[in-house]
Amino acid sequence: MAAVWEFKELRFAQDSKRSDVKAVLTSMAEVDRWELDRVRVYNDGRRWVRLRRKIYHLERTA
After folding, report:
1. Start-to-end CA span in the chain (Å)
2. How far, in whole angstroms, is CA 54 from its chain's centroid?
3. How far apart are alpha carbons 26 and 30 in whole angstroms?
4. CA distance 49 to 20
5. Is the dihedral of CA 21, 23, 24, 26 positive or negative?
6. pLDDT tens for each residue of 4-15
7. What gap in Å lies between CA 17 and CA 20, rounded to an integer?
8. Where are the domains of the chain?
9. pTM, entire model
10. What is the C-alpha to C-alpha distance for residues 15 and 44, in angstroms, rounded to an integer?
11. Beta strands in the chain (DSSP E)
12. 24, 54 Cβ separation under 8 angstroms
């Protein structure tokens, strides 16, 4: 069975501090189990981040 992923895209303004972005991403990883998929940092300082997490389909056994 192939893995099924859920994706979420976040955009951060050019004036956002690196430490603030790190805090947001760390919180999302610890609480909601998101992980980094792609990161882009543009020349003007904007950041685009795509996160992913695995979707688990549970089947009843009894």
Report:
1. 21
2. 11
3. 6
4. 14
5. positive
6. 999 999 999 999
7. 5
8. 5-54
9. 0.81
10. 10
11. 5-12, 35-41, 47-54
12. no
